[in-house]
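Re: duplicated header lines in exported structure tokens

Our pipeline writes sequence and tokens for each protein into one text file. With two proteins the header for the second block appears twice in some exports. Here is an export where it did not happen, for reference. First protein block:
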Amino acid sequence: MPKAKIAGIGFYVPEKEVKNADLSQYMETSDEWIKERTGIEARRFAVKHKETTSTMGAKAAEIAIQRAGINKEDVDFIIFATLSPDYYFPGCGVLLQRELGITKTEIGALDIRNQCTGFVYGLSIADQFIKSGMYKNILLVGAEMHSMGLDFSTTGRNVTVIFGDGAGAVVIQPSEDESGILTTKLHSDGSYAEKLSFMSPGSHGGYHSEHLEEKVDYGWPDKDQPAEIFVTEKMMKDGHFYPYMEGPFVFKLAVQKFPQVIKEALDEVNMQASDINLLVPHQANLRISQFVQKRLGLSDDQVVNNIQKYGNTTAASIPIALCEAWENGRVKKGDLVCLAAFGSGFTWGSALIKW
């Protein structure tokens, strides 16, 4: 059974850089306040009404395809991970296909919604398809355009200051040698789904209020009447259509699950944390990455952190960080590379790759 390898990688971030101080014109915050809590110094925002999640994904994909030494027409399957799609439906996979101009081949396109762990989940899916022999050139994209859906007021600052826009992509192919994906580990626990979520608008009709500590009135019609409205006036007034995060709870769980899922992958291939040449964690919070680094006993040279420049780009963060590290010569042939993520759901996962 062949291994699956990353044959080409690329990333794209918008030109517009938004520094911490720039956000102070919209909300009560400061450079010091943001850096102390997140480690973030700046992020990139896409050009509204001109760039979208899928167009950014296409730019990253074109680079990955070129570096893989193939043509766009050689791609035989698309996997697109995002929590900020262009449309509620259809998903970004088919929009990416159209953007790349490869609709004539009528290849399959799969959209996955695993938020911060989306890229790791997508990598695991691609790994299985390659091993089975079903596909030979899988295009995996993680892309986000958060700036179109954030609360730029003091009320929403705890979430808004964290996120940025961008895209990363890889081409997955069968390996011809010992390089490739050694193992992937995926987990989830929906017990506390609402602790990090974007709940409205949605089809729940207020259902998830039962899972919150305080009941929320979304202004939905009486439960015995047909639902005639998707977005209510009260929902708009109270700002219930913005992301919600209970930061301390998420942090506590993340620093627990990150090391566990990394160790799980290492144990399967009889390796130790010291064998890792490069750890590429999801760029959620610099403090989380530093905590995990310390727990695993890794040096600064063994860990990639670029959240300082780009913020949290969710499904795009791992491929962006991995590509930037590769471009800077930090990833070499034969290196053991570990990818790990934790996010909304809650979901978490890891992947070990022999480069």
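Second protein block, exported in the same file:
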Amino acid sequence: MTGWVPKLPPHAESTIHQFLRAHTLADGAQGAVLGLSGGIDSALTARLARDALGPERVLGVLLPDVRFPPALLAETEEYARSLGIESRTIPIDSVERAYGLLLPEIGDRVTVGNATARIRMSVLYALARERGRLVVGTGNKSELLLGYFTKYGDGGVDLLPIGDLYKTEVGELAEKLGLPAAIRERAPTAGLWEGQTDEAELGLPYSQLDQILYGLEQLRTDAEISEATGLPLLRVREVVDRVTRTRHKRRAAPVAKVGFRTIGLDWRE
């Protein structure tokens, strides 16, 4: 797909540094709080935040539950130490159990996984509030376009510094910055249930998904994307449909217009 494949812009790193400094230290904020999962997105975001703000202004928080592999936990804690940032490990098993007791009829693993993501985000916001900091999200452009995040969970953040980088571009920048190979090569997963991986759920590898998404960004038709990528038109349309179906996740909650100026419509911030 020559000319349509996402390629990391040379200014990406410096732009993200400027973005983080402009927003994270604006209006009296004291720095950043972010979740560390052991995955490439959070590892890259932590590195970028450290480089932009200084290690003393970055708090990385590990929020493991019973499904979190101990070896991955130890590796992630060591990665935070290697960055020189402050980190905290806060197990959330007790909160998950309390949620299960409150709603014992909830058994669907996606619903339970979404609850876990929201528990984690509530902890990050509590810590950020106490320290006068902002919650920095780790979502990338591919996940945002596909709606592959939990609304008001990992999607409920103050800033998204890598939100305009496709997953494949995240990998490029991580390699450029020399992130550990174990992090860069690990299969992407939200870790919300045992054996879960992003690409198994999404049905295509990110290398192909990003070509489709980039074609959409370039305003190409489904047929043009299919022809250029060699992917079946049906698969292309499935991805396009997912982008359309999940657009509510990328929008602020709509407000019924009653007054003269309405938030989100004609009252702009």
